[in-house]
Design brief:
mainly beta; 4-stranded antiparallel beta sheet; 1 helix; 10% helix; globular; Hsp20/alpha crystallin family protein
Length: 83
Amino acid sequence: MSLNAFTDETDALARRYDYDDGSVLVADLGVGDDDASVDVVDGTVILVLERDGTTSQHELDAPEGTVAKALINNGVVTVEVER
């Protein structure tokens, strides 16, 4: 799924920033840290969100490269990719 599709589906604000040495994906999930998790498997960012007792899973395509870090802090997910 693209960031635009993720934004449309979840109403989360999401952006991709590209730099010479990599990219950063950032999304404000609108939930607390205890209500979200992030994992990266084979270049796919997997987000699991719980809202109002309902759990949803979203898969985002990570930019090409090696994922250096994926974390959630204050409801904002950040995925750093190195080239």
